[in-house]
Every structure is written in structure tokens, then in C-alpha cells.
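stage 2 :: seqdesign
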């Protein structure tokens, strides 16, 4: 008779454990702020002479919230020397809710023409309702800085001026 009670007790214990809501399994995976994916580079969109001669294309950074706590970042119409298609990469550093995004450019030949490029990256780890500061750098130059509250429908455009200090 004792064995039957032990068996029933163990069966109830197993049943109770199997119906427990394991919060760790059901919780969404958290992403560390600054995780990057899907880096893109358009390559040269057309060459021109003289650094400022292509004024019809406005240089800007566009930020747009996308699923999963990611921010889609597009740096449009970046002007640089021709033949730099493979010279770009992105690095990030995080300090609390401040994220620094650095466009890293390998030094190379300096042809006598310029191109407009589009760079893009998706950065994760953003939480709805939290305030963040993004700092955009290229080499030692800070070309944009923005603070915002991350929402699921967040979108912002930041015009870039070569003479503007941030």
C-alpha cells in the first residue's frame, strides 16, 4: 500500500511540474544593445567631380524602428572618393543607453572623382519606451547625434551638413 501512495505522490509531483509555466522558456530572447546585422553598401551610385558638385542628392541618415527591437539605419548619399565600395564597415560601442556607431573607412587610393554611396545596417537591443542617444562618427568626426524614445513606429530623418558640429 505504501508503494501505491508513493507512486501516486510521484505521479502528482510530475504532473504539477509539467504544468508549471516556465517563464524563462516563454520570455522573449533579449538582444544586447548594439548587435548589428544586415550591413549593406550600395556601391558607387554615380561619380562626379568636385566634392560639393553633386548637391541634388541630400546626405541624410534615416532611422526606422523594425520588428524585434531593431532600428534600421540608412546613411544615404554619403559622398566619398570613387572606388571605395569595399572600404566601409561599421563598429558600435555602447555606454548605457548611448550607442556610438562608427563608419570605418579603410584608407586607399584617392582618385580624382567622387561617388555617392548608401550604407545601411540594422542594430538591435532597443526596448519600447526607453530613451536612447545615437552618435554617428566617421573616423574622429561626429557627423550626427540624436536622442529619442524608441517606439514601434519610430522614424526620423537627420540631414547631414559637412560644416555642422554635433
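stage 2 :: out
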Amino acid at each position: 500500500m505504501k508503494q501505491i501512495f508513493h507512486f501516486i505522490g510521484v505521479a502528482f509531483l510530475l504532473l504539477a511540474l509539467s504544468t508549471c509555466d516556465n517563464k524563462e522558456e516563454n520570455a522573449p530572447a533579449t538582444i544586447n544593445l548594439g548587435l548589428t546585422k544586415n550591413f549593406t553598401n550600395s556601391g558607387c551610385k554615380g561619380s562626379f567631380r568636385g566634392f560639393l558638385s553633386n548637391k541634388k542628392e541630400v546626405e541624410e541618415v534615416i532611422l526606422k524602428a523594425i520588428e524585434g527591437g531593431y532600428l534600421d539605419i540608412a546613411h544615404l548619399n554619403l559622398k566619398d572618393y570613387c572606388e571605395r565600395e569595399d572600404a566601409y564597415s561599421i563598429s558600435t560601442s555602447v555606454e548605457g543607453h548611448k550607442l556610438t556607431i562608427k563608419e570605418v573607412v579603410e584608407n586607399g587610393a584617392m582618385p580624382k572623382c567622387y561617388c555617392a554611396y548608401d550604407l545601411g545596417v540594422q542594430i538591435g537591443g532597443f526596448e519600447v519606451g526607453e530613451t536612447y542617444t545615437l552618435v554617428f562618427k566617421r573616423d574622429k568626426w561626429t557627423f550626427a547625434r540624436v536622442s529619442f524614445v524608441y517606439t514601434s513606429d519610430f522614424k526620423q530623418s537627420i540631414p547631414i551638413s559637412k560644416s555642422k558640429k554635433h
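stage 3 :: structure notes
- The beta strands are 35-41, 47-48, 60-66, 70-81, 88-95, 98-105, 114-124, 131-138, 141-149, 155-159.
- The chain is about 15% helix and 45% strand.
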